[in-house]
Write a structure and sequence with these properties.
176 residues; 2 domains; single chain; globular; alpha+beta; Peroxidase, domain 1
Length: 176
């Protein structure tokens, strides 16, 4: 879940990208920034309060092969505002805004075993029909679900897993 700050940053970057017609390019830039800032060693240096902010910003600016000027400015802004830890959330919120603008929705289906291609296509088609949007489906295999599936899109979760049903049954039996 994105924080209010991450949503503000993502919205500002998205509006800039949309106005420039460079949404895909900015998505790539944000991914690179979040990858770099997610590195534990890099984040430790860039968030270290004993190092002056100007020196921390200079580290990013001194690596011109990493980012172009606009991306460097964004990274510097995150360092300056103490939001290095928000880079991944900003990227995710930006992607959500881009998907909304394009009429897409990202969904994740979690199953105990790998879905056959036909089953995956059927889930994607049915969800697209119900939402009246293009669906991009990610499949996650998690044996702990035992059977059934868990579907997540946006802030909605449809949990039809055997593990959840067993847990619900266990609670009902314990309550009696």
């Amino acid at each position: 879940m994105a924080t209010a700050a991450a949503r503000r940053y993502a919205k500002a970057v998205f509006e800039l990208a949309r106005d420039e017609g460079s949404v895909a390019e900015w998505a790539h830039r944000l991914h690179r920034v979040s990858e770099l800032l997610a590195d534990a060693e890099v984040a430790a240096v860039l968030t270290n309060p004993t190092i002056p902010v100007t020196q921390r910003e200079a580290l990013i600016a001194a690596a011109p092969h990493q980012f172009d000027d606009e991306t460097t400015n964004l990274a510097r802004l995150l360092i300056e505002s103490g939001r290095v830890d928000q880079a991944r959330a900003i990227e995710q919120e930006f992607q959500r805004l881009a998907d909304d603008a394009a009429g897409r929705v990202r969904a994740t289906v979690t199953t105990a075993i790998e879905l056959e291609r036909d089953d995956r296509d059927r889930v994607e088609r049915e969800l697209s029909r119900r939402l009246n949007k293009e669906v991009s489906l990610d499949v996650v295999v998690d044996p702990r679900v035992i059977g059934g599936l868990r579907l997540q899109y946006g802030d909605r979760v449809v949990d039809a897993t055997v593990a959840t049903r067993l847990q619900q049954l266990r609670r009902r039996l314990a309550a009696t």
